[in-house]
Design a protein that fits this description.
The chain has 167 residues and is mainly alpha-helical. It has five helices and three strands. It has helices at residues 20-33, 92-96, 99-105, 123-129, 133-140, and strands spanning 63-64, 69-71, 83-86. The protein has a three-stranded antiparallel β-sheet with strand order 1-2-3, with no helix packed on it. The longest helix is centred in the first third of the chain and has 14 residues, at 20-33.
């Protein structure tokens, strides 16, 4: 089982994070440059929110570290394997469409082969809605595992059985 790091603090704790002032200034400039877009400092939720909310990082927004790298989870900052492209050398559009980072957001079904999710017919729905890998890690010791009580797994749908010689 993977060791579960403590979650990152609330936004009020961010001034103590190295690089926060630089990040706050970048966010302010991006908000001015891209006024039609919503650009803001990320407000983390509590671990209990994973039970009733879906993670939209990579679905409808990106999360950036103070050094400019995108990251999969604000609660798992110490896991460098979850870090993606760096905005110092990549455009926002390139970061959003980065193949390796996309696979961190929505891993293939094969990554879930040891989980009941790998056999569930609603697998794609969970990916489109966003998975909380922190909740998966807390509850199952792995990122590629169930992240909420969904009532599943839901067996694959099987079509009608045809008898030989019938059309």
């Amino acid at each position: 089982m993977l060791p579960v790091p403590p979650p990152a603090g609330r936004a009020a704790d961010l001034p103590s994070v190295p690089g926060h002032r630089r990040l706050a200034e970048r966010v302010r400039r991006l908000a001015e440059l891209f006024a039609p877009m919503r650009v803001e400092l990320f407000e983390p939720t509590s671990p209990d929110d994973c039970d009733r909310a879906y993670c939209d990082i990579g679905i409808s927004r990106l999360f950036f570290l103070p050094d400019g790298r995108v990251h999969r989870c604000y609660r798992l900052l110490s896991d460098e394997a979850l870090a993606g492209p760096d905005l110092e050398s990549t455009s926002l559009a390139e970061a959003w469409h980065d193949r390796r980072f996309s696979e961190l957001i929505s891993p293939p079904r094969s990554a879930y082969s040891d989980s009941e999710c790998g056999r569930c017919r609603r697998f794609g729905d969970c990916h489109r809605n966003g998975r909380c890998i922190y909740r998966s890690l807390l509850d199952h010791g792995a990122y590629a595992a169930r992240d909420r009580d969904c009532g599943g797994p839901f067996p694959a749908e099987v079509g009608p059985v045809r008898q030989p010689g019938s059309s």
